[in-house]
User: Fold this.
Amino acid sequence: MTAQSSDAFVFFGASGDLAYKKIFPALQALVCRSGLDVPIIGVAKSEWTREQLIERARDSIAHAAQEEGTVVDEAAFARLATRLQYVDGDYNDAATYTNLKAALGAASRPLYYLAIPPVLFKTVVEGLQKTGCAADARVVLEKPFGRDLVSAQELNRTLHGVFPERSIFRIDHYLGKEAVLNLLYFRFANAFLEPIWNRDHIDGVQITMAEAFGVAGRGTFYDEVGAIRDVLQNHLLQVVALLTMEAPSAGKPASSNEEKVRLFRAMRPIDPKDVVRGQFRGYREIQGVAAGSDVETFVALRMFIDTPRWNGVPFYIRAGKELPVTATEVMVDLKAPRAVFDEIEPPDSNYFRFRLSPEVVIAEGARVKTPGETMQGERVELVARHQSTRSKSPYERLLGDAMRGDNALFISDECVEAAWAVVDSALNHAAPVREYEPGTWGPPEAERVASPEEPWHNPGREAINPC
Assistant:
């Protein structure tokens, strides 16, 4: 049975940063390309008027267009503006939800987007329930989904007390990125990968998420989260799952989540001894950061997956702020071939390289013979590079899916809890953070996490002798 589309879009936190940066541009795109034609209601406690909300939306969309090097589609914005409504009120006040219900009018299947701090999730969800606004509705929540396993379980209990699981959409915008979808497609659309995508042929996997910027303007938020909660538990474990899960059933979107759950449950809980946390010099001087903060801005770790396919294969993951480049890259190192040519050492063996950002690149490392009489070779990369084109933003794609009730790219309750079970032990660290200089690849101690035979691959280097 095909799910009915939502007939209204309500976003709490309408005056906030997330709405400005992501939601307004996504709504403009949905109106322009998908013909979104439902009431759009912003809710906030800002003492705004509807006209001020519209002005905020225009400024947001103009800013996004400027960043993309485009111009505002005035006709699309006019259509968006006619649909915009505003409800002002405190989330703890029952009158806010009564006014929202009146604004919804005849709409009976609204989608609620909670673009608010997680501490307010319970307040808003229960407020919707008490006023009858939650019946036949859907709800979208932003990460983080809890701070650890216990809080994630508590959040799921709160949500399930009001909404069935099929109506809960936990959004991780990373899963809506074109590059991440390309990774999933490449894995299961190419028959040549399956025979070698296992412990017999893969020596190790490295995943690096590097950001050349810090946390200026977000000190208070980041000091409550840190790198493990901010990107490891969600973005990077999701990438690991896409790389390693078994093939989902064709035509069954929900089976992708089922395979991820199986994979997460097979992940060995991270051993704190295999974790190095770092903090860039100067972090504690940022506004909003505690003077003696022990929060990590960098993390490097080693983990394992106990399945027949991956048993014994190490996965090396690192993420950090104030690193030399901004890039996310996956390096899958293959084992060295049978010794026919003595020149080939493990660092010179084959690999697959997936650049997920800022551009999309899929590359295969190979060796070719150099000219001459001796059987000597050199490394080359066979590169497939996607040219930049105007495609859907992650938020446009995911909000459109949520409106239609398609949860294929969203995270289930079981996935959330299974992922927290993997990283929970890494949160209970005894060792202090290691300081590192901005512009470096983290603290020197992080080098010991990777294999001596296969040191960290640093994104940003040009392809080696590209063919």
